Amino acid sequence: MTTGTKKINDLVPTLSEFSGLQEKQKKHSQNDIAIHGRYGDGKKFAETFNPDLQRACSENLLRTFTGDALRLQH
């Protein structure tokens, strides 16, 4: 008689299925390495590019549009 219940192992992917994703996450592009070298880790990056920076950018439009800071791309 089948009750319709499944074992947890049937429902949850095995760790080996995630290993490929972990390998991809470990590989950084040259761009990633350059950004990390210039701006530091995530915490340092967030401190540098915080909302207070918007005021400084609005006061210096030439640097905002022609400087070499990171840009959002579409």
Folded structure, characterized:
- The model has no long low-confidence stretch (mean pLDDT 75).
- The protein has helices at 8-11, 15-26, 30-39, 42-48, 53-59, 61-66.
- The chain is mainly alpha-helical and 74 residues long.
- It starts with 7 loop residues before the first helix and ends in an 8-residue tail after the last helix.
- It is elongated and about 65 Å long.
- It has six helices and no strands.
Structural features:
74 residues, mainly alpha, 6 helices
Concise overview:
Helices cover 62% and strands 0% of the residues. It is built from six helices and no strands.
Write the layout of secondary structure elements.
Layout: H1 8-11, H2 15-26, H3 30-39, H4 42-48, H5 53-59, H6 61-66
H/E element string? HHHHHH
How much helical structure, as a percent, in the residues?
Answer: 55-70%
| Radius of gyration (Å) | 22 Å
Poorly predicted tracts of residues: none
> How much of the sequence is in beta strands?
under 5%
What is the molecular shape?
Answer: elongated
The total of helices stands at 6
User: How does the helix and strand content classify structurally?
Assistant: mainly alpha
**How confident is the prediction overall: mean pLDDT?**
75
Number of strands: 0
- Main sheet? none
- In whole angstroms, the N-to-C terminal distance is 56 Å
